[in-house]
Amino acid sequence: MPWSNQSGGGGNNGPWGPRPGGSGGGQQPDLEEILRKSQDRLRQAMPGGGGKWITALVALGAVVIAGIFAFTVRVNTDEVGIVLRFGEYVRQLQPGLHLRLPYPIEEVELPKFTRLNRIEIGHRGAAQGSGISVRDVPEESLMLTGDENIVDIDFVVVWKINNAPDYLFNIQNPQGTVKDVSESAMREIVGQSDIEPILTAARAETEGKVQHLIQRTLDGYQAGIEIVEVQLQKVDPPAQVIDAFRDVQAARADQERLQNEAQAYANRVVPEARGEAERILQSAQGYRDRVIAEAKGEAARFEKVLLEYQKAPDVTRKRIFIDTMQDVLSNADKIIVDRDGGVVPYLPLSELQKRAPAPSTPSSSAPSVQNGGQQ
């Protein structure tokens, strides 16, 4: 949509008010000022005066200078030249020196194409002394989350021009448009999220979603603007409830810690209990196998003894008696009495050897003499 300049004087106004960028390429040099300065310099150079020649030379120089200004335009390295012919966009100029038709036929807008612009939302920073003071703007920073909590968010949007004609002709106030769209996008994303992820792990994800939504909205406007970055500066609960919110966060952290400790205890105790149960089962299984094996051995031995007993009952009975008495008397205190009723002295050398004290410990009492006898 071309501009329609109704002012008639090479200003920087369009049909919707002041233009969003550019240097106002239609402005002309002050020829009277140039002429006056040139005359003064010539008078100083020619003390005898030059009369009409001086005036003619000055006028010629002024015309040449005016022609240079009128027919040329310089585009800096961070700019792009947008040429308007009778208010209609015709071409772009890259950095350098270019020819153009004089005003009012053509005029050139010079928006800063590579400059990064910064918009602060929720706060304002200003230089104060040796530092920077930050002023909070609650009407921009307070937002409602999806779980019906209030969060205080300060963020910065960095943007630049990526299409100069769209930037100049499709939006009237780029700075205000980007600010309004950015605030709206942040409120929409925050309204779809819970407060806890925004405060903790989802900050980077929130920045990406907001940047994508801002860019999509501006592309719908054909604003010619590229969103370079969205930076969350501060994400906190409102100052009035921040202490209570921190208590809640601390309680949640304690709850999570206790749950982790309980889970760790369960992970340690349950395997130990299972191991102990398995050990008891294995021990019981071994005991069962041992008892069964012993019972089978005893049964087999009894069957063999019975077979021998059936072959020679007297001999077998006597042998069984002797073996039984040996087992009984070997573990009992014995006193031997002869046929007449007298006690026969008995010295158990084998037991004395077993009970002999250590060399360093003197014996407190003499070993008792036990008697044994034969039946």
Task: Using brief descriptors, characterize the structure shown.
single chain; 375 residues; alpha+beta; Tetrahydropterin Synthase, Chain A; 3 domains; three-stranded antiparallel sheet; 15 strands; rod-shaped; disordered N terminus; disordered C terminus
CATH class bucket of the largest domain: Alpha Beta
CATH topology annotation of the largest domain: Tetrahydropterin Synthase, Chain A
Structural class: alpha+beta
In one word, what is the shape? rod-shaped
Helix percent reads 40-55%
Biggest sheet statistics: 4 strands, antiparallel
CATH superfamily of the largest domain, by name, is Band 7 domain
Question: Which percent band covers the strand fraction?
Answer: 15-25%
Average pLDDT over all residues: 77
- Give the low-confidence spans: 1-17, 20-28, 363-375
Give the beta-strand count: 15
The gyration radius over C-alpha positions equals 55 Å
Q: How many H/I helices?
A: 10
How many domain units? 3
- State the end-to-end CA separation: 138 Å
- What is the H-and-E element order? EEHHEEEEEEEEHEEHHHHEHHEEH
The CATH architecture of the largest domain comes to 2-Layer Sandwich
